Amino acid sequence: MNSTKLKTISNRFRLALLALPAVFAVVVLRYILREVFEIGEVATFGEIGSVITGVTLILGFMLGGVLTDYKESEKLPASVAVALSGFSSTAHAGLLVKDLDVAMIDERIAKVANTIGGWFVGTNSEDQMWNALSDFPALIVDLEKAGMASHYVGRLLVLNGELNVTLNRIVVVRNTSFVQSGYVLMSLLVLVLQGSLAIVSFPSSIMSWIAPSVLSLAYAYLWLLVRDLDNPFGHSENSGKGSGADVDITPLMNAVRALNSQ
Question: How many whole angstroms separate alpha carbon 166 and alpha carbon 96?
């Protein structure tokens, strides 16, 4: 099992641990109501079925929405990697055809790639990333002045445009949350459900503790998962460890390393 999969499993286990305080709160509240205030269970499991249905519906809606963006986001780091590698290989080919020195472009392309990679992991700001990327149009002009054939220059312009489009899409995904009003409703319903689990009754005394704990853990975990999936590019969060919901940026980082080794 590679390090990326181990990191993902570790972060998902961490997400489950973050849901445990909700379970603890429900169990403690249930104990206080029953043992301290001697308030019996005032609702049956069937009576809170409408609450569970409402919470499940809103969680399903929110999860479906964030997963749509997430599936698209999984492809974006590889698209950036392909554009960077393609830009470098096309520029090299155009210079070699004219017997020109390729050393003039390696450092500049590597600098842009390093800044983009640093932006993904949080060591560079968004402004620094765009400032670095602005050197590509200038580099294309310099290559044309150096005598590069027009069809190579045209291809470089296309690759630069594709890179800008992909990075802009990533910026939008990182900076935009899915349906803010939906988050408010989802949080409110999950909170109501957690409170309901503290007062609901079950036929079995054992299940009166197990069932509320399991349901509380499940819905708290799903609430955290939806919020985590909403930002698939949170690699800089959690002290740089990211989360289990972050998309794999290995293709991008491999491309950055390859460009630095040229």
Answer: 28
Spell out where 17-163 has E strands.
43-44
Q: How far apart are CA 115 and CA 150, in angstroms?
A: 28
* pLDDT tens column, 71-123: 889 999 999 999 999 999 999 999 988 888 888 799 999 999 999 999 999 89
Torsion of CA 253, 255, 257, 259, to 10 degrees: -150
Q: Which two tokens stand for residue 109?
A: 């392309």
196-252 pLDDT, tens per residue?
888 888 777 888 888 899 999 999 999 988 988 888 888 877 666 677 778 989 999
62: which 2 tokens?
A: 């929110």
Structure tokens at 153: 């220059």
In this prediction the pTM is 0.81
Decide: 24 and 253 in contact? Cβ < 8 Å.
no
| Ramachandran assignment for 99, one of left (phi > 0), alpha (psi -120 to 50 degrees), beta (any other) | left
The type of residue at 23 is V
Buried b (16+ CB within 10 A) or exposed e, 128-144: ebbebbeebeebbeebb
Q: How far is CA 216 from the centre of its chain?
A: 25
